[in-house]
Amino acid sequence: MKLTIPDICELYLKPGQVPYGNEGVSQLDHALQCATLAEAANQPDEMVVACLLHDLGHLLHHYGMDATDCKIDDRHEHRAIPYLKSLFCPAVLEPIRLHVEAKRYCCAVEPTYWSQLSLGSKETLQLQGGVFSREAAQAFMAQPYAEAAVQLRRWDDQAKVVGLVTPNFAHFRRRMETCML
User: Fold this and answer.
1) How far apart are CA 24 and CA 45, in angstroms?
2) How far apart are CA 138 and CA 164, in angstroms?
3) Per-residue pLDDT averaged across 168-181, rounded?
4) What is the number of other CB atoms lying within 10 angstroms of the CB of residue 7?
5) Averaging pLDDT over each range in 31-35, 68-72, 125-129, which range is the top one?
6) Taking a C-beta distance cutoff of 8 angstroms, is the pair 166, 112 a contact?
7) Is 8 exposed, middle or buried (0-12, 13-18, 19+ CB in 10 A)?
8) How many other CB atoms are found less than 10 A from the CB of residue 159?
9) Residue 70: per-residue pLDDT
10) Are 89 and 54 in contact (CB under 8 A)?
11) DSSP characters for 135-174?
């Protein structure tokens, strides 16, 4: 199980054109918007690449694009890691792996966070285990890269704007290549 940079580009440029759940944007648009937000915040290449690839797992399963409608947690945050671990370091991989838990964490510690989630994110939250308990939230933040995952999550939540103009996928390819092991 291994992907190359050209494989990743092809996944986003072909299957990635499909809608991203009920969000109104494609997987590709969502990835580009999230990476653009990280880039605009002058984040290191590793964080920009984590933002770009955080939902790659949605493009690597056999459930189809309606997994949530079928009440299936596709475990996308874990699904991509075996394909990417020979390419990237933990600074890329860990925020990807932890970004769903970061949503559960933010819902637990920020009273208004849940109400600001999109309908799609609220639906998947229940499939992903729901809001963390206080103890689970503390354990989450004790992990390396938890803070990076929370930041990625915030950009993930914002990266659902229909019609937003971003750089294209090729723009971020150099960053991916820079982060390669």
Assistant:
1) 27
2) 36
3) 95
4) 12
5) 31-35
6) no
7) buried
8) 25
9) 52
10) no
11) HHHHHHHTSTTHHHHHHHHHHHHH---TT-----HHHHHH
Q: What is the pTM of this model?
A: 0.91
Position 56 pLDDT exceeds 80: yes
The length of the chain is 181
Q: Which candidate, 54, 75, 141, 154, places its Cα nearest to that of 113? A: 154
Write the DSSP symbol of residue 59.
Answer: G
* pLDDT for the residue 169: 94
Torsions phi, psi for 88 (to 5 deg): -130, 160
Helix, strand or coil for residue 43? coil
Compute CA distances 169 → 13, 16, 52, 174, whole Å. 8, 11, 9, 10
Task: Specify whether the CB–CB gap between 122 and 114 falls below 8 A.
Answer: yes
Residues 8-17: tens digit of each pLDDT: 999 999 888 8
Region for residue 78 given its phi and psi (left: phi exceeds 0; alpha: psi -120 to 50; beta: otherwise): alpha
